[in-house]
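R.M. (postdoc): so does anyone remember the format we settled on? I'll just put the structure tokens first.
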């Protein structure tokens, strides 16, 4: 028998990705929450999926809600950090478009390529509880940045003032597409391109893509398949 740390017996060798038992618990919970539902998943089931005792799970998380809160927060935090950095750049016609394109591409890539489709948990009734307010606040801030970038683009182009909110909704629609098995390797980039087409920037799209990729290479870490997407 191996151990997950002092006083934390493990029933078997680790079988899940993660540098720590805490990471493995999050991975198991993500699989169970998205596969059979939050309400139908017990902490015992999560512990069994990791190969630890239920009591050991409580060394890392005091409640199932705490696990869900960390998982939900993780779906937003990386994209929010990237969006905050991108918001600091100047806004001529190409760079304003590139900033919105980059945020859509980066955020969409996180939702499409994460190990589990945790976005399906966004609309759980439980997600409105007080414990999840940090997640809700972060998601609201991310949506606000989308709106700001959309308005900024509208000031230097013929784009609609509501383009940023439309972009946010399009990105989150990837969650349902993924749930339906309709996600492809270029879904995030197609979504970002679609936002630019809605802005009336189809002719400028090659330049926007190039500038967007530059922003992502400087400020983000996206999957190789996205970083090397076609520019044509």
């Amino acid at each position: 028998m191996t151990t997950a740390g002092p006083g934390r017996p493990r029933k078997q060798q680790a079988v899940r990705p993660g540098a720590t038992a805490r990471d493995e618990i999050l991975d198991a919970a993500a699989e169970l929450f998205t596969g059979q539902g939050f309400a139908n998943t017990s902490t015992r089931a999560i512990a069994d999926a990791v190969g630890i005792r239920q009591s050991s799970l409580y060394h890392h998380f005091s409640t199932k809600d705490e696990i869900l809160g960390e998982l939900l927060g993780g779906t937003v935090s990386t994209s929010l950090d990237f969006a905050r950095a991108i918001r600091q750049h100047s806004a001529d016609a190409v760079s304003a478009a590139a900033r919105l394109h980059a945020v859509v591409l980066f955020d969409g890539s996180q939702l499409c390529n994460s190990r589990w489709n945790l976005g399906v948990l966004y609309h759980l009734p439980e997600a409105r509880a007080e414990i999840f307010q940090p997640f809700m606040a972060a998601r609201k801030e991310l949506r606000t940045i989308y709106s700001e970038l959309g308005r900024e683009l509208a000031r230097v182009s013929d784009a609609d003032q509501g383009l940023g909110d439309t972009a946010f909704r399009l990105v989150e629609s990837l969650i349902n597409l993924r749930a339906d098995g309709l996600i492809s390797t270029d879904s995030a980039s197609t979504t970002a391109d679609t936002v630019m087409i809605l802005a009336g920037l189809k002719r400028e799209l090659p330049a926007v893509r190039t500038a967007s990729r530059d922003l992502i290479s400087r400020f983000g870490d996206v999957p190789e398949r996205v970083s090397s997407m076609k520019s044509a």
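R.M.: ...and that's the designed sequence above, right after the tokens. Also worth knowing: The radius of gyration is 20 Å. Residues 64-86 form the longest helix (23 residues).
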